[in-house]
Design goal:
Layout: H1 3-16, H2 34-68, H3 72-90, H4 100-110, E1 145-148, E2 151-154, H5 160-167, H6 181-189, H7 218-242, H8 248-254, H9 258-288, H10 302-318, E3 320-322, E4 328-330, H11 334-341, H12 343-368, H13 373-376, H14 382-408, H15 420-423
Antiparallel strand pairs: 1-2, 3-4
Length: about 425
């Protein structure tokens, strides 16, 4: 028997006999449990970092093949492995803001921009010194001894420990990026000397060929690349553990105040949307028309990194992540919570997240058609500039709806990451 029809019949019978005095109601639909939403969030983090780790291991293997047998083919394979590794990692960036354990760690794996002269040889146009950085052209690959803060440092053996413990942010200067994806990117591509013209970095495979060495110091360059990729794997293993069943990041959220946990999710969404991606990574470069301000500036892979940042924001809102192998991790979501209290806000935010991803896909389509991101932000490229600006506008607009979701859930107001590029653009030119 249909339960609803059965209850209707019972009501009629009781009413007819005069027994029914209190209305009988069907049980309400169960509300979404905020803790279940936080578990989904943690599960997606774990899956994302596991995928980032797996693709980093593939990159490590590809770089080992390049070092063992330098050729145009092994270099191309290592570059493709690097690009593949960026896709899952970028989808985890939404976890950075709000999660101190991620934010404190992030600089080890994704810091940018970097003064690449710290690591290896650079074009003469790069210059020889910087008022802000005494290690601007230290070139550790060419120099087995360098000076940091007036003290000589032994750099004769390049190990993961040397990179992370001594060279990374040497002299307390953030531009001294010695580890992570972008240091590896520079080693695989070299400088992009094309400005806002076509072409990416073009390091020859012979830069790793000890028998036919170009660029000098091929053995140390290979040593640096091996250490950097090994370190990336180790760093990602650490973050996978943090989101595992007994991991500190997971337990801190799941065992904490659910309101704080939901606020953490929305903090990551809003801060990456607004200050970091729309502002520092996109609007700044567009204002200056400067290819040095693009995220993946050596490889011309920026369109992919920006796209998957936007996808990552959408993932955590909807509680759904598609893994590298095509399987899905999904469950109760912030969208479910918002929908229960204000369906209009959920519809609005969901729609804007889609609009932003579509705008990022338009940037990617131009890049796939031969116009790289650094060309799109070039001065005088009105169509390219407009395409990038549309994505920035989408990110700013969706942030307003994230703020509305915070209000709908009656959470304390959140101060999202800001950016002078958006909030005070005149300062950019001072």
């Amino acid at each position: 028997m249909n339960r609803a029809n059965g209850l209707t019949g019972i009501r009629a019978l009781l009413a007819a006999t005069g027994i029914l005095t209190v209305a009988i109601a069907l049980p309400a639909a169960a509300e979404t449990d905020p803790k279940a939403v936080i578990v989904t969030y943690a599960d997606i983090a774990l899956a994302g970092y596991e995928d980032a780790l797996a693709t980093a291991k593939a990159l490590d293997q590809a770089t080992e093949a390049l070092i063992a047998n330098p050729s145009a083919e092994t270099l191309a394979a290592a570059r493709e492995a690097w690009k593949a590794a960026r896709i899952p990692y970028q989808q985890t960036e939404v976890y950075r803001f709000g999660n101190a354990i991620v934010d404190d760690w992030e600089g080890r794996v994704n810091a940018w921009p970097l003064d690449e002269g710290l690591i290896d040889y650079v074009d003469p146009a790069y210059g020889t010194e910087s008022d802000e950085n005494t290690l601007y052209t230290a070139n550790v690959i060419a120099n087995p001894s360098i000076e940091i803060n007036g003290e000589k440092v032994d750099a004769s053996v390049i190990t993961p420990e040397f990179l992370s413990g001594t060279l990374q942010e040497a002299g307390d200067i953030e531009a001294n990026v010695a580890t992570g994806y972008h240091a590896i990117e520079f080693l695989l591509w070299g400088q992009d000397l094309n400005g806002t013209g076509p072409g990416a970095g073009n390091r020859p495979h012979t830069d790793f060929d000890k028998a036919n060495c170009t660029g000098g110091n091929c053995e140390r360059r290979a040593e640096y690349l091996a250490a950097a990729t090994d370190l990336l794997v180790a760093d990602l293993e650490e973050m996978v553990a943090n989101w595992g069943a007994d991991g500190e990041a997971r337990k801190g959220l799941v065992e904490g105040d659910p309101k704080v946990g939901i606020s953490t999710i929305l903090t990551g969404m809003g801060s990456l949307s607004y200050g970091e991606l729309a502002g520092e990574r996109m609007k700044l470069g567009l204002l200056l028309h400067d290819p040095e301000e693009e995220h993946d500036c050596f490889s011309d892979n920026t369109h992919i990194s920006h796209l998957y940042d936007a996808v990552g924001i959408r993932n955590v809102y909807h509680g759904s992540y598609t893994r590298v192998d095509g399987s899905k991790v999904e469950g109760p979501s912030v969208s479910d919570l918002v929908k229960e209290v204000d369906a209009a806000v959920d519809t609005e935010l969901s729609g804007k997240l889609d609009v932003t991803v579509t705008a990022m896909e338009a940037i990617k389509a131009r890049a796939d058609g031969g116009e790289a991101y650094d060309q799109q932000i070039g001065e005088g490229n009105e169509e390219g500039n407009a395409t990038v600006q549309a994505a920035i506008d989408g990110l700013v607009d969706q942030t307003k709806s994230i703020e509305r979701a915070v209000a709908a859930l009656k959470l304390d107001a959140i101060d999202f990451e800001g950016s002078d590029s958006l909030d005070a653009p005149d300062k950019v030119f001072q």
